[in-house]
Amino acid sequence: MKRVAVVVLEGAKPMDVGIPAQVFTHRASMPYSVDVCGIRPGLIAGGDGLSYHVEHGLEALDEADLVFVPGYRFPDRDAAPEALTEALGRAHARGAILAAISTGAFALAATGLLDGKRATTHWHYARRLAERFPEVQVDDRVLFVDEGAVLTSAGAASGIDLCLHLLRRESGMAVANHAARRLVAAPYRSGGQAQYLPHSVPESTGERFTQTREWALRHLGDPLTIARLAEHARVSERTFSRRFLDETGYTPMQWVMRARVDRARELLEETDLGIDAISAAVGLGSATNLRRHFRQVLGTAPTAYRRTFSQSS
């Protein structure tokens, strides 16, 4: 059982608070418990007409394995409370993972833990984050940034992407996919996907692309080329490649490779199939290919991944 702390600040955004609290809430399929806390216990005035009554103060961070700092109003105007920056620093020093949603990045940046690292926040506040914390490499183009022990996400809904990414990283594909189904959320959006598209994508084409991705996930064991994917979407290869990148943050073949690796992760977690059989089932051909792509994407070997996340372990 891992412990999660969600820190509610003055002006906290309801969706930003609710996302990690709901994603990680304890249930049979989720090996986590959640404490919602404030600088001190009691009533906290939130944003958007809501208030929060929290039972815990910052002492909740002393035992947490994962700490979320949700977004809050006027982050560029109000300095993060010193007690919070100190508590975040202590949590980080003992190995806790720190994650900011939206403008929560301002409070996380105030600790100095983002200095020299990439980070993101809601695109509306990105320039001000960069001005206030010039040592932080702010990227307003992406949904979330994973720097290992510190993570940041863009506004609101991208917090779901960040939470599911953390679940995949810390607890495996089966737990993350179960959570995605429970939330009726897309199981995977890359951190590199744009926060917003520079131009609108025709709805009919966007819908066809969604159907093509779903079709591809059912045919990962088959030869999948750009030509075949574009044919299924009924657009030219050039149009398919360009719009696919806009929608997912990946080229089509990068997306296919990641989908195959993720399916292999599920099979490693949930079955006793050998590495060769899994490689063939997901369309990677050989155990050598599976090991190579696993190393590139996850920095580990399939057998080591199975020992860590297998349901029978």
From TrEMBL:
What name is this protein filed under? AraC family transcriptional regulator
Q: Which Pfam families match?
A: DJ-1_PfpI (PF01965), HTH_18 (PF12833)
Instruction: Write one Gene Ontology MF term.
Output: DNA-binding transcription factor activity
Record bears the keyword Heme: no
Q: What organism does the record attribute this protein to?
A: Leucobacter chromiiresistens
Q: Where is the HTH araC/xylS-type domain?
A: 210-308
Q: Keywords in UniProt for this one?
A: DNA-binding, Transcription, Transcription regulation
